[in-house]
Write a structure and sequence with these properties.
1 helix, 41% strand, mainly beta, 5-stranded antiparallel beta sheet, flat
Length: 128
Amino acid sequence: MTSASATPSDGTWFVLIEQDDEVAYADGHDIFRWQLAAEHEARDEAHAREWAKDLLQTHLPTRRHAPADRPHTRRIYQSSENVWLVVIQESWRTQHFRLSVARLVGRSKVAAPPEPAQPEKRRRRLFG
């Protein structure tokens, strides 16, 4: 997902795109879950903001079935300085994605939990 080949360091700026991807179909309903769809590493904060402004106007959700040139309306909501929600309305469906400019502030490696101990088997006495 990261556009750069090297491992990013703390303090690196990114443009993140989250979208609601269909993960299942049950009882006649589609089931969606928000997922990180793209993680673009930027040179610095200014570059990330410029990239975000372009993506707000051009990005289309990956599960979109219509061609990019099909007519649609795009509403862009800014919920904070670095977070936007984009609603794309076509004649037959509505899709949306969230775009954020964010700085990597830390990372950690989580070790796998230890295997649970097996209960000790007790022997039953056969006689008395």
